Amino acid sequence: MKSISTNNATVFFNSEVYTELNNYIKTNKPSKIFILVDTNTHDYCLPKFLERLESGDINIEVMEMPNGEDHKTIDICTGVWEALSEYNADRKSVLINLGGGVVTDLGGFVASTYMRGITYINIPTSLLAMVDASVGGKTGVDLGSLKNQIGIINEGEIVGVDTSFLDTLPQNEMVSGFAEMLKHGLIYDKAYWNTLTHLENLDLSDLDQLIYESIVIKNKVVTSDPKEQGLRKILNFGHTLGHAIESYFLENADKTPLLHGEAVAIGMLLETYLSTKVCGLSTQELEIISEGILKTFSKVEINKNDQKHIIDLLQYDKKNSHGIVKFVLLEAIGQPKTDCIVSDALIAEAFDYYAN
């Protein structure tokens, strides 16, 4: 597949990943190479990656963090910064983030702030990271249970998408990443949405092309608006309520935490309903979208008490301004509208729609 150029980086695919990465190392001669992994990618992805990495006489240090969203914290960043310092990382060092969205988000933030910025490269190993987290330069960590409150927009040098890493991924993680692909269809390309919701007509050999198309869509959006002043906001469809739901389930011991895509799928269903009330989305498309999402994602019980706390968490959404919560909604499939204001009463209606 042809590489994709972003504002400051290039996305390479499969075997080309290693050709370009090794060329980068030979040409730029970094002082040291650091590889950030989590406990899962250390075991399942690192050996294969190291087999194909040609570092010559450049020293490689591997740094391992715990896996999971609950470790996407400043405390973990501090540990990685201290490790970089201990191993004498300098401004000519490079950090390779080998992992899912937690690793690429946190690793990108660490690299962007260590010594005021060193080069980093993302090698996403999950479907979510391939189609979303590793592309576009959003780096950062959570503040307690609040998603991505601390961070910076700064692209890495290379994104390397080797889809063979997906062979190591549990089914629920594949499903989680699929939510972002569905979102790309809903906000940008109705034909792509239709393809994704009729996967029975496809086979596994089509997956690479679908991933490629998803990255193309995201790249078109972020290259036109890298700092999220306008169009890039559309990528938040499903995330206003989705992030609040994810945070709520993460911080409550009596709840089973949801993967990012599982929470976003709920958010997309809720925000699709809101779209019928605020933006004139047709009830026919509401039914089409609901059916398309529920083909893949099971419903989750959210009671009235849960709803109240989730609505309270909306105040922390990063799109807000002047204390007003702003949503991305749909006028039609492929036609999003930003900066929509929605009442709490309508949100409660949306939860009722989801429940029933």
From TrEMBL:
The keyword Lyase applies. CDD domains: DHQS. It comes from the Bacteria. Residues 177-320 form the 3-dehydroquinate synthase C-terminal domain. Its EC number is 4.2.3.4. One of its GO terms (molecular function) is 3-dehydroquinate synthase activity. The keyword NAD applies. NCBIfam families: aroB (TIGR01357). This is 3-dehydroquinate synthase. It comes from Winogradskyella eximia.
